[in-house]
Amino acid sequence: MGTTQLESAQEPKYWHLKTVLSEALDSEFSVGEILPNERDLAARFGVARATLRQALEQLELEGRLQRRRGVGTTVAPPRVGVSVGTTAQAWPGAADDSWGGLDGAEAVPPTAVARALGTADGEQVHTVRRSRIFAGRPVAAELLYIPAASVPGLPAIDTPTGALRARAVLRELQRSTLQGQDRSVELGSVGADDARELDRLPGAPVLVVTTRFYAGDRTAAVSVATYRADTCRLTFGDSGGVEIHQDPERHAS
Q: How is domain 80-236 classified at the CATH fold level?
């Protein structure tokens, strides 16, 4: 981990330092290894500790570092590849579905979701909340919105909320013929409910995957899935996505 002429950089000092540190993590440190303390790192790079903290905080947000109380700052494991779509399309809750932790209720959807579903203002829809665990870590929380018109044969449900209600809604949804689905991904910040589920602080960066399911020439359901941006990368298709590794010959100057 060498020194660099931070003063001549056009970008903020902490951002340039973040780049240098990131390259050093690839070339000099192993997963789980503890970094030198802030005083030593700041002296080594000739920067103020405030600048160093900004760089370390950014690397933590990007999932490169983990700060553990009583231990220090350690190198985080690589992001896990999490598949969010394959060529085989299926309803939520299908046999090969990787989601769990069901909870069901009725609620008025957000305006944008109601517009996509074609429901009236203030009309309640079925909601199903699910979670996804990958490699022993929570990586995503999902909220499904399903209007009553999509599950016309749904029997009377005694429980107003809970897993039994969620299973009944998903089971009835799967009786329809899925005609297609589309998906979009955007950067967002995690809300309070999903933050608790994902073990993140509210406002942490996340990847929001919105999926519309079509049946009978209409939107039959909408899924809003919130993925941790610091621990996973999203993959699409059957190949598992493309991985780009850092060049091991690159070193900080």
A: Chorismate lyase (3.40.1410)
What is the DSSP code string of the chain? -----GGG-SS-HHHHHHHHHHHHHHHH--TTPBPPPHHHHHHHHT--HHHHHHHHHHHHHTTSEEEETTTEEEEPPPPEEEEEE-SS---TT-TT---EEEEEEEEPPPHHHHHHHTPPTT--EEEEEEEEEETTEEEEEEEEEE-GGG-TTPPP-S-SSBHHHHHHHHHHHTTSPP-EEEEEEEEEE--HHHHHHHT--TT-EEEEEEEEEEETTEEEEEEEEEEETTTEEEEESTT-----PPPTT----
Q: Are 236 and 84 in contact (CB under 8 A)?
A: yes
For domain 6-75, say whether CATH 1.10.10.10 is its number: yes
Burial of 86 (0-12, 13-18, 19+ CB in 10 A): middle
Q: Residue ranges per domain, the chain? A: 6-75, 80-236
Token pair for 214: 């079509």
Read off the pTM.
Answer: 0.74
- pLDDT, tens only, 174-186: 999 999 999 999 9
**239 pLDDT more than 60:** no
Strands 232-236 and 80-85, by their bridges, are parallel
Tokens matching residue 159: 């429980």
